[in-house]
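Before we proceed, please read the two lines closing this message. Report back on whether the structure tokens fit the sequence:
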Amino acid sequence: MMGDVLNILTGALMIIGAAFTLVAAIGILRLPDLYTRMHAASKAGTLGSGLLLIALAIFAQDQAIVTRALAAVVFFLLTAPISAHLLAKAAYAAGYKLWGRSVHDEMANAGGDATTPDAEARSDKE
């Protein structure tokens, strides 16, 4: 009885995790610019892979596998938002443009990267 409940829970987590991973892949293909694509990959991809690793931890009978899977979930949750933020900031500093229909550009007036040559070139154009 308990084994059946664990199998159903594992299967449900795998299906939901795969669906989030699919949404992330579709977002990478369909979204208009680098920043929205990165958002889809970092948010939905992290959630999808985290759910798949939690399903592995529930299904596995070996303590070492459970520990590694949960450590990987924690690693994803700690590193994915930071790396996505730093990559987006570097892309903005390199001059990648926002989508033409973007509503607001918070980095344009932030002045946080005024020492980089790209930021100085952008400020000279304005």
